[in-house]
Amino acid sequence: DTLMKFLDEDEKDILEQVNKHNGKLLQSEIKGKTRLRAHRALKKLRAKGILNMEKTGKTNKIKLNENFSLK
């Protein structure tokens, strides 16, 4: 809500996708973005402390930070 006003469209889209998957998603499962756009948006969200990323094989597991709720 207030948080979403400060995010760009790519960041909002990724957050919505993560939220639809109960706060957990693999980076390879992100739809509608090129790999580079997704990577850049994830990097920004991680820097803002909204998401955590954990290396899992050849991809990253993305988790919504427990301090944030989008519901």
Structure description:
- The chain has 71 residues and is of the alpha+beta class.
- 35% of the residues lie in helices and 21% in strands.
- It is built from two helices and three strands.
- Strands 1-3-2 form a three-stranded antiparallel sheet, covered by helices on one side.
- A hairpin with a 2-residue loop joins strand 2 and strand 3.
- The longest helix has 13 residues.
- The N and C termini lie close together (9 Å).
Number of strands: 3
Distance between the amino and carboxyl termini = 9 Å
> What low-confidence regions span 5 or more consecutive residues with pLDDT below 50?
none
State the helicity in percent bands. 25-40%
Biggest β-sheet: strands ordered side by side in the sheet = 1-3-2
| Helix/strand class | alpha+beta
Largest sheet geometry? 3 strands, antiparallel
Report the radius of gyration as a whole number of Å.
11 Å
Query: How many DSSP H or I helices?
Result: 2
**Overall 3D form:** globular
Which H/E pattern describes the elements?
HEHEE
* Fraction of residues in β-strands: 15-25%
Keywords:
71 residues; alpha+beta
Topology, element by element:
Elements: H1 9-20, E1 24-26, H2 35-47, E2 51-56, E3 59-64
Antiparallel strand pairs: 1-3, 2-3
